[in-house]
Every structure is written in structure tokens, then in C-alpha cells.
Amino acid sequence: MKEFKVKVEVRLKPVVLDPQGKSVLSALANLGFEEVRDARVGKLIELRIRDGSAESVRNRVDEMCRKLLSNPVIEDFVVNIEE
Amino acid sequence: MKEFKVKVEVRLKPVVLDPQGKSVLSALANLGFEEVRDARVGKLIELRIRDGSAESVRNRVDEMCRKLLSNPVIEDFVVNIEE
Q: Which residue from A4, A27, A45, B45 has the fewest beta carbons nearer than 10 Å?
């Protein structure tokens, strides 16, 4: 058993409207940051996992993303694993 | 003027309790993912910025993080810039 650090990035799919991103964009413009053309807000989920192998971790984390961590209808996810 | 893609990762500082992470951890355990030892939830903010240089982008984004994108009292941020 080893301990893995896993970073999951969850983003809205590019075709999905992002009202939180639009709020950030307009707040930045109000503060004078007018060079910002677009802003999107996603989630960063960091897990510590004890498991036998990186492949097993990848399969399990994919399943976690599909079942709980992301909404596959509107979000994409990317998984990075570090030993 | 070039366009830069900037990725900002905002995390709670390690000493700060993360109730959202604790909820994720217990929901994962309830779904049978008992190998997960810890979960922390942060934000992933992606910006498109038009600016003259990567240094200028870095300075401006640091300022955005301090003023709006993060709460420096309880959060840390990491900025990645791609041209």
C-alpha cells in the first residue's frame, strides 16, 4: 500500500454558461482589471488515497468523479496522480 | 499585445478546517471509496488576459488574487501562465 496525492480539476464544459465566471469578470473590470477577457470558475479537489497502484487509483478516481465529484452532464474532469 | 491563458489555483491554507472537504470525504466513504484518507476542496479560476508580457500578467494576476480571487487570511494561491 502506498499513499497517493490526487488532484482533480473539475471544469464546466466550454458550451455551458458560467454565471460565477461572469461575476468574477465584471468584478475584475470594476476593480480596473480591464485586460481580462474571460473568466471561468471550476473546482480543485485534492485527495490523499491509500492504494496498491497508480492504475487502480486512476480507475477508482474516475469512478468517484462520475458518481460524486463532477456532474458529467455539464462538467469535464482531469485527474493528476502523484506518488 | 498577446493573449495569455492563466490558471489560478486557490486552496485553503493547510491549518484551516475545510468542512466542504470533510463532506466530500464522508460522501466518498458512504459510496464505498474507503481508501480516501483526506479530501480538500479549492477553486480553479481560469482567465484569458490580453497584455504585453508574461511578467506584467503575473504582477496583475497576483494583485487580482490579493484583492478579489482569494481571501489571503485563509487561502493560498498559485498562478500558472501560458502564452
A: A27
